[in-house]
Amino acid sequence: MQSFEFIMSMVIWYDILFAVNTVSKTLQSKDMQLDVALSQLDGLIDFMQKYRNTGFVSAKATATEIASDMDTEPVIKATRRVKRKCDENENEYTPDPKQVYITDYFNVIVDQALTALHTRFKQMQEFGNVFGFIFDLTKLREMDETDLQRHCTRLRDALSTSESQEDINAADIFQELRILQEIIPKGTTKAIQTLRYLKGIEGTFPNCEIALRILLTFPVTVASGERSFSKLKLIKNYLRTSMSQERLCGLALLSIEKEIASKLDYKDFISEFAAMKARKVTLT
Fold this sequence. Notes:
68% of the residues lie in helices and 0% in strands. It is built from 13 helices and no strands. It has helices spanning 4-27, 34-69, 97-120, 122-135, 137-142, 145-158, 170-183, 191-200, 206-216, 223-235, 245-256, 258-261, 266-277. The longest helix is centred in the N-terminal third of the chain and has 36 residues, at 34-69.
């Protein structure tokens, strides 16, 4: 553990995981929106790309300081090479240990991290390409009619299951967005604010409402799902193994949405439940 290679590895992993963890905590917030998430991910990818080019130098400098405190020689040593019987040339070229470490360890780790980021969030980026013109209200206000019509057609195609089943009409949402560009309040900057504004004038922009509802229900991360499974472990324990699926779903929903459930008036629900289960028949 006191070898300089081990110290270098710890510094490199710390830099990578610290950046990933910072973005991960931001993405797990309840009110996280897709445009902010994509911006965070783009920033993380840019950081990893820059770290691949310049990160080794800074990591080595940090590792050198740690090694000096541990009385460890700050030198990357060559790995032992197994000499084969067929190696007849004893004066063959021996690669630089530092360059071998960069090629076989540092670049491999960073490249795998970049590949994982591109692969795992590819669907989210494609979703952002389809809905991006809606949640970025600044671009929506400045977008010309040609680009707006092209985005509306792409959105219609993405939400269509077949030629005869379409969630929105491209021509209608194009006309709605043309009007919305002019009447949307200037202080509106988020998609949720736009949907609340449209709810106030319900029925005027039906296609825009559908598109925004789909956009805002798209999960940025799976943190909510993980919290749901954590709740299930608390609700259905070994003392409640005979609980039915319907009751389990109901209790889980009440536990997950406890902030909303705490504001409900239970007297009305109890009265309604009692009336449904009452065996007595009121005679007129």
